[in-house]
Write a structure and sequence with these properties.
Chain A has 462 residues and is α+β, with helices and mostly antiparallel strands. Chain A contains 15 helices and 18 strands. Among the domains of chain B are: 93 residues, Alpha-helical ferredoxin (Fumarate Reductase Iron-sulfur Protein, Chain B, domain 2), CATH 1.10.1060.10; 109 residues, AF0625-like (Rossmann fold). Chain B has a 5-stranded mixed sheet with strand order 3-5-4-6-7. The chains are: A alpha+beta (462), B alpha/beta (421). Chains A and B meet through helix 2 and helix 12 of A and helix 3 and helix 4 of B.
Chain lengths: 462, 421
């Protein structure tokens, strides 16, 4: 990169917040996805702006020189959404990490994009408030990243995803213009819903510099239970049954036998390794009604053929049950070195047939595919356990993934429930949104970012 | 050694980024290359041929405290510290050690007598080079000599611990016989901790052997990638201790304990005839707090009226998993009131020679620790590691908090016993 330009960027954000050494730049060629581009796509420069004015100044300069900007938070996305390219500047927003205010009367909060999700949750919970979205990476993911990817999480079944809590945003557009969208009120129909457009835009339309979120009252209590099944199909059929009984669990997680065995192998907590599936179910709300709800769910599970139902009697027992879920990823990563977590999502009633289909695909291509679903919201999380160094196997993995996509769409589902399109699914997007959908998205992108500097190559593949 | 040997462990990193929440270095330096994920991926890049193992790479490998915070927090359990140490070994193999470290490890540490003599002479002449700091909390360098002039150091002891105490210290009634591995910091800088350990062991029914010809455990050399020196020191330690007829080998420093219990397996993995000896040593090694906590403090305990807070040294806490025992022991002493600090397991930034080569960075990390200590309102900071003690004292002193005393767990506990026995 032209040294004059580098100097100007250093002036804007401060020299200590610019990294130009090759070894430092190299470390932005990956994120938490399975994609790594390596030495051919090492970005030109890394900048860490400290406020919206700096973000705007960098964008203005980049736009003028047509330099791609790749926005990044904690780099914890799993869609390749922050993978670098060799002509780009990576803009990391972690310095902008202040919670501006938490407004108890209006139950809203304003914060900067670099705030860590779990830190924010801890702060609001101290005040008896609740920000539900809980991506698995919440302990280190940034709120800006969560908004850009529209992150979900296990609580989605009851509480929805990031999108459902974003009232408004302050963003910087490709030309450096600072724009406020949305409102501080629960209702607002003033013009097109640009807030919704920006949430989940994966850094391709704007840089988020401020977030206004809606909060809920913190539920009084939780209750957790585990149901063990000898039949995966029966377990997955149970999911819809629970909802049909009029109960919306906070989380309803489905773990298959591969997960059960790996977890038991790893943490030894007494899971039955011969079981075909377990459902981990949590309800929350008014303490008085939870026992009743758990009672109904237990009965449904037993009626569906559950071998055993364990209800946690206290917080300690609940915690023990959650250990299984939390150690799941670590457990399977000990089986094979490369883990590809898919997030195809289907309507709840289609879970049994798609789970069955995934099993068939796994056998057909001889690849290990485990299922750990946020089944309550139909989010399947087929997990492919493989080894990136084995090219022959990786070719089979790719075919298996394609077939899972097709099965998902046939079941009227979506290719990505919460991870985003990024680099990983760009080429499949047309299967879901059609040519017309792609054309409209491209037209929008060109209008808002005529020089195509914001995260080019992501999502729409250009 | 070849870079490829690190690949098996390195590819286990799933790049999730969880290490970002816990890495103290990353909190200061903010670049991805400074967090565990970055370092592991730089190592992978070297293996792949994408990055040269040059000065810049070497500098990034030096930015690790080996505090194990990332290892404990890693969902896939990647041994990041082992990978960084592996990279440092390969760099030392190919390019050698920097001058100061070469002098200390290769010439100083490898020669116990010279080391004894050098540090003994040092204790005589140090007053020429250092001036006393406030509240009797150590000394400050008078001249710039590779040490930061703000830095408060604890003077070298006039006489090192092993030469001033007897080799065999019996107690009656004798329940157990143990050997005491002092480690360098206790032997040369804080012999009073050694006294306290002896007093505690004897008051708790153990006769103590303190082998005179014991030397450094090898950790400083190992962590810095000087495997050949580490091997020599590890072998000397194993040879000195493995045939002693003792029930346990007691350490009072997390890093020494970790070396004897875990790291010797790694360091001496390809040394013929050492496997069984290393196993024997590992099995017997126990930290002083761990040892005493098995039965709780025996005998009559007098009142020790102190408000204390406890810092978990990285290698004692995350390394040896000794966390509960020191706290239980302290709470069993009448009058001791333990106030937990915010994040007792956060690294104090000392990390042995890291604080020598990266003083400013290590003091920035230290600031979190001293702030947490001050916020508890405690009068005394207790910890189980002498290197942490020195660094925390330095930080407290520079922050005008020298009224807070810094003690080893053994020193506090020993105050509960009137007699030496």
């Amino acid at each position: 990169m032209d040294s004059k330009l580098v100097e100007r960027l250093k002036k804007i954000v401060g020299a200590e917040h610019v990294f130009d050494k090759y070894e430092d730049r190299y470390c932005y060629t990956y994120d938490a996805s399975f994609i790594t581009v390596g030495k051919n796509e090492v970005p030109e420069l890394i900048v860490y702006p400290g406020n919206k004015e700096e973000v705007a100044a960098v964008l203005m300069l980049a736009n003028e020189h047509k330099i791609p900007i790749i926005p990044r938070g904690a780099g914890s996305n799993v869609s390749g959404g922050t993978i670098s390219r060799n002509d780009a500047i990576v803009m990391v927003l972690t310095r902008m990490n202040k919670i501006i205010n938490i407004d108890r009367k209006n139950m809203i909060a304003e914060l900067e994009p670099g705030v860590i999700t779990a830190d924010f949750q801890t702060q609001v919970e101290k005040l008896g408030l609740f920000y539900p979205p809980d991506p698995a990476s919440k302990a280190f993911s940034t709120m800006g990243g969560n908004v850009a990817e529209c992150a979900g999480g296990p609580r989605g079944a009851k509480y929805g995803v990031t999108r459902d809590y974003i009232l408004g945003l302050e963003v910087v557009l490709a030309n450096g213009q600072i724009l406020n969208v949305g409102a501080r009120t629960m209702k607002s129909v003033a013009g097109y819903d640009l807030t919704r457009l920006f949430v989940g835009s994966e850094g391709t339309l704007c840089i988020i510099t401020k977030i206004i979120v809606k909060l809920l009252p913190l539920p009084e209590a939780k209750k957790t239970m585990l149901a063990i099944f000898d039949d995966l199909y029966k377990a997955s059929e149970t999911v819809a049954q629970v909802f049909m009984a009029g109960i919306i669990p906070t989380t309803l997680e489905l773990l298959d036998n591969i997960y059960i065995k790996s977890i038991e192998d790893y943490v030894k907590i007494g899971l039955p390794v011969d079981a075909e599936a377990v459902l981990l179910i949590e309800v929350d709300g008014d303490a008085a009604v939870l026992d009743k709800q758990i009672g109904i769910i237990s009965k449904i599970c037993k009626d569906q053929g559950a071998r055993e139902v364990k209800v946690a009697q206290n917080e300690k027992e609940a915690e023990d049950l959650w250990v299984a879920r939390r150690s799941a990823f670590a457990a399977v990563s000990r089986v094979r070195p490369t883990i590809i977590g898919e997030d195809c999502t289907v309507p709840r009633d289609k879970i049994p047939e798609v789970v069955k289909k995934v099993r068939e695909i796994s056998a057909k291509y001889d690849v290990i595919i485990a299922v750990l679903g946020h089944a309550g919201d139909g989010n399947l999380h087929a997990t492919i356990l493989t080894d990136e160094r084995d090219h022959e196997e990786m070719a089979r993995v790719e075919k298996a993934i394609e077939e899972i996509f097709i099965a998902t769409l046939e079941a009227k589902g979506t290719l990505t429930g919460e991870h985003g399109v990024g680099r990983a699914k760009g080429k499949y997007l047309h299967l879901e949104v059609g040519k017309e959908g792609i054309d409209l998205m491209k037209a929008l992108k060109r209008t808002m970012d005529p020089n195509n500097i914001l995260n080019p190559g992501q999502m729409l593949g250009e | 050694m070849q870079w490829e040997e690190l690949e098996k462990e390195a590819i286990r990193c799933i790049k999730c980024g969880a290490c970002q929440t816990v890495c103290p270095i990353f909190k200061e330096l903010e670049a991805e290359s400074t967090v565990a994920r970055g370092k592991v991926n730089l190592i992978k890049a070297v293996i792949r041929g994408d990055v040269e193992p040059n000065e810049n790479f070497s500098e990034r490998m030096s930015w690790c405290l080996a505090c194990k915070a990332c290892v404990e927090n890693c969902p896939s359990g990647v041994k990041v510290d082992q990978l960084v140490i592996g990279a440092r070994q390969k760099l030392v193999e190919d390019k050698g050690l920097p001058f100061l470290k070469r002098m200390i490890f290769r010439i100083g540490l490898r020669n116990r007598r010279l080391f004894d003599f050098g540090l003994g002479m040092g204790s005589v002449f140090q007053n020429l080079l250092f001036r006393p700091a406030a509240n009797g909390q150590g000394m400050l360098p008078r001249l710039p000599m590779g040490l930061d002039k703000r830095r408060v150091l604890t003077p070298l002891a006039a006489k090192n611990f092993t030469s001033r105490c007897s080799e065999i210290n019996t107690t009656l009634p004798e329940e157990k016989t143990v050997a005491f591995f002092t480690g360098c910091m206790i032997n040369y800088v804080y012999p009073e901790i050694g006294d306290a350990v002896l007093k505690l062991l004897k008051n708790n029914g153990s006769s103590v052997i303190v082998p005179k010809n014991q030397h450094c455990c090898g950790t400083p050399a190992y962590i810095n990638g000087d495997l050949s020196t580490a091997k020599e020191l590890a072998k000397a330690t194993v040879d000195t201790f493995c045939d002693l007829e003792v029930d346990k080998i007691i350490t009072a420093c997390g890093s020494c304990g970790l070396a004897l219990r875990n790291e010797y397996f790694e360091i001496l993995s390809d040394e013929l005839g050492y496997k069984e000896k290393v196993e024997r040593i590992a099995e017997k090694t126990m930290d002083i707090a761990e040892y005493l906590a098995q039965k709780g403090l025996q005998g009559e305990l007098s009142q020790v009226n102190k408000e204390v807070t406890y810092h978990e040294s990285c290698h004692l806490g995350r390394g040896l998993k000794v966390r509960k025992q020191p706290r239980d022991l302290m709470k069993s002493v009448p009058g001791v009131n333990l106030q937990e600090m915010k994040d007792p397991g956060r690294c104090c930034g000392a990390a042995g020679s890291f604080s020598l080569s990266h003083y400013d960075l290590s003091m920035k990390i230290n600031k979190y620790k001293t702030d947490d200590i001050v916020n508890t309102g405690a009068q005394v900071l207790v910890t189980g590691c002498a290197a942490c003690m020195m660094h925390i004292k330095d930080g407290l002193n520079q922050g005008d908090n020298s009224q807070i005393k810094v003690m080893h767990t053994a020193e506090l506990l020993a105050e509960a016993y009137k007699k030496d026995k």
